[in-house]
Design goal:
This protein is mainly α. Helix content is about 75%, strand content about 0%. The N and C termini lie close together (about 10 Å).
Protein backbone atom coordinates (compact mmCIF):
# COMPACT_ATOMS: atom_id res chain seq x y z
CA UNK A 1 0.00 0.00 0.00
CA UNK A 2 1.30 3.45 -0.93
CA UNK A 3 1.73 5.61 2.18
CA UNK A 4 1.20 8.81 0.17
CA UNK A 5 -2.51 8.04 -0.06
CA UNK A 6 -2.79 9.25 3.54
CA UNK A 7 -1.16 12.64 2.88
CA UNK A 8 -4.27 14.40 1.50
CA UNK A 9 -6.23 13.36 4.60
CA UNK A 10 -3.42 14.51 6.88
CA UNK A 11 -3.28 17.83 5.03
CA UNK A 12 -7.05 18.31 5.31
CA UNK A 13 -6.89 17.47 9.01
CA UNK A 14 -4.05 19.89 9.70
CA UNK A 15 -5.81 22.72 7.87
CA UNK A 16 -9.38 21.91 8.88
CA UNK A 17 -8.83 21.33 12.60
CA UNK A 18 -7.67 24.89 13.42
CA UNK A 19 -10.67 26.28 11.53
CA UNK A 20 -13.06 24.03 13.48
CA UNK A 21 -11.43 24.93 16.79
CA UNK A 22 -11.60 28.63 15.98
CA UNK A 23 -15.29 28.29 15.13
CA UNK A 24 -15.93 26.53 18.44
CA UNK A 25 -14.09 29.30 20.25
CA UNK A 26 -16.26 31.90 18.56
CA UNK A 27 -19.41 30.08 19.72
CA UNK A 28 -18.30 30.66 23.32
CA UNK A 29 -17.33 34.31 22.72
CA UNK A 30 -20.16 36.07 20.90
CA UNK A 31 -19.67 39.47 22.60
CA UNK A 32 -15.89 39.76 22.23
CA UNK A 33 -15.99 38.45 18.66
CA UNK A 34 -18.67 40.85 17.47
CA UNK A 35 -16.82 43.67 19.24
CA UNK A 36 -13.63 42.84 17.29
CA UNK A 37 -15.60 42.74 14.06
CA UNK A 38 -17.13 46.13 14.82
CA UNK A 39 -13.74 47.56 15.86
CA UNK A 40 -12.24 46.95 12.41
CA UNK A 41 -15.23 48.64 10.79
CA UNK A 42 -16.95 45.69 9.16
CA UNK A 43 -20.70 46.14 8.72
CA UNK A 44 -23.31 44.00 10.49
CA UNK A 45 -21.12 42.35 13.16
CA UNK A 46 -23.79 39.77 14.14
CA UNK A 47 -24.09 38.61 10.52
CA UNK A 48 -20.31 38.57 10.07
CA UNK A 49 -20.08 36.53 13.30
CA UNK A 50 -22.59 33.97 12.00
CA UNK A 51 -20.78 33.69 8.67
CA UNK A 52 -17.44 33.22 10.44
CA UNK A 53 -18.82 30.47 12.72
CA UNK A 54 -20.46 28.61 9.84
CA UNK A 55 -17.36 28.83 7.64
CA UNK A 56 -14.87 27.99 10.38
CA UNK A 57 -16.75 25.31 12.29
CA UNK A 58 -18.82 23.83 9.48
CA UNK A 59 -16.20 24.31 6.78
CA UNK A 60 -13.43 22.94 8.98
CA UNK A 61 -15.37 19.78 9.79
CA UNK A 62 -16.46 19.26 6.16
CA UNK A 63 -12.90 19.75 4.99
CA UNK A 64 -11.63 17.14 7.46
CA UNK A 65 -14.29 14.70 6.26
CA UNK A 66 -13.45 15.49 2.65
CA UNK A 67 -17.02 16.34 1.70
CA UNK A 68 -17.34 18.91 -1.11
CA UNK A 69 -13.69 19.56 -0.36
CA UNK A 70 -12.96 21.64 -3.47
CA UNK A 71 -15.84 24.02 -2.81
CA UNK A 72 -15.19 24.21 0.94
CA UNK A 73 -11.46 24.78 0.40
CA UNK A 74 -12.19 27.63 -2.03
CA UNK A 75 -14.61 29.24 0.43
CA UNK A 76 -12.11 28.94 3.30
CA UNK A 77 -9.31 30.31 1.11
CA UNK A 78 -11.38 33.40 0.31
CA UNK A 79 -12.34 33.72 3.99
CA UNK A 80 -8.66 33.46 5.01
CA UNK A 81 -7.65 36.21 2.58
CA UNK A 82 -10.55 38.44 3.64
CA UNK A 83 -9.62 37.90 7.28
CA UNK A 84 -5.96 38.71 6.55
CA UNK A 85 -6.88 42.01 4.89
CA UNK A 86 -9.57 42.98 7.41
CA UNK A 87 -7.88 42.02 10.69
CA UNK A 88 -4.14 41.69 10.07
CA UNK A 89 -3.08 44.47 7.70
CA UNK A 90 -1.17 46.65 10.19
CA UNK A 91 2.30 45.72 8.94
CA UNK A 92 3.97 48.12 11.39
CA UNK A 93 3.10 45.49 14.04
CA UNK A 94 5.28 42.43 13.39
CA UNK A 95 2.72 40.16 15.10
CA UNK A 96 0.02 41.33 12.68
CA UNK A 97 2.34 40.74 9.72
CA UNK A 98 2.95 37.18 10.95
CA UNK A 99 -0.82 36.60 11.21
CA UNK A 100 -1.32 38.12 7.76
CA UNK A 101 1.27 35.77 6.26
CA UNK A 102 -0.19 32.80 8.17
CA UNK A 103 -3.58 33.50 6.59
CA UNK A 104 -2.01 33.82 3.14
CA UNK A 105 -0.20 30.48 3.63
CA UNK A 106 -3.44 28.80 4.74
CA UNK A 107 -5.13 30.14 1.61
CA UNK A 108 -2.31 28.63 -0.45
CA UNK A 109 -2.79 25.20 1.10
CA UNK A 110 -6.55 25.45 0.66
CA UNK A 111 -6.12 26.33 -3.02
CA UNK A 112 -4.06 23.14 -3.40
CA UNK A 113 -7.05 21.18 -2.06
CA UNK A 114 -9.37 23.10 -4.39
CA UNK A 115 -7.11 22.26 -7.34
CA UNK A 116 -6.33 18.61 -6.61
CA UNK A 117 -9.32 17.42 -4.58
CA UNK A 118 -9.72 15.62 -1.29
CA UNK A 119 -7.79 12.45 -2.09
CA UNK A 120 -8.61 8.78 -1.67
CA UNK A 121 -9.53 8.89 2.03
CA UNK A 122 -12.49 11.24 1.76
CA UNK A 123 -16.24 11.30 1.46
CA UNK A 124 -15.86 12.88 -1.97
CA UNK A 125 -13.89 9.85 -3.18
CA UNK A 126 -16.26 7.37 -1.54
CA UNK A 127 -19.32 9.06 -3.01
CA UNK A 128 -17.77 9.33 -6.48
CA UNK A 129 -17.23 5.54 -6.53
CA UNK A 130 -20.99 5.06 -6.21
CA UNK A 131 -21.69 7.34 -9.19
CA UNK A 132 -18.83 6.09 -11.29
CA UNK A 133 -15.56 7.98 -11.62
CA UNK A 134 -15.87 11.62 -12.54
CA UNK A 135 -13.28 13.85 -14.17
CA UNK A 136 -12.73 15.72 -10.89
CA UNK A 137 -12.30 12.63 -8.73
CA UNK A 138 -8.78 11.78 -7.63
CA UNK A 139 -7.95 8.15 -8.35
CA UNK A 140 -7.16 5.87 -5.41
CA UNK A 141 -3.53 4.83 -5.05
Amino acid sequence: MDATRYLPFLGRLLIGLPFAMSGLGKLAAYGPTTAKIAAVGLPLPPLAYAIAVVLELGGGLLLIAGYQARLIAMALALFSLATAVSFHSNFADQNQMIHFLKNVMMAGGLLQIAAFGAGALSLDHRLSKGRGATASAVPAR
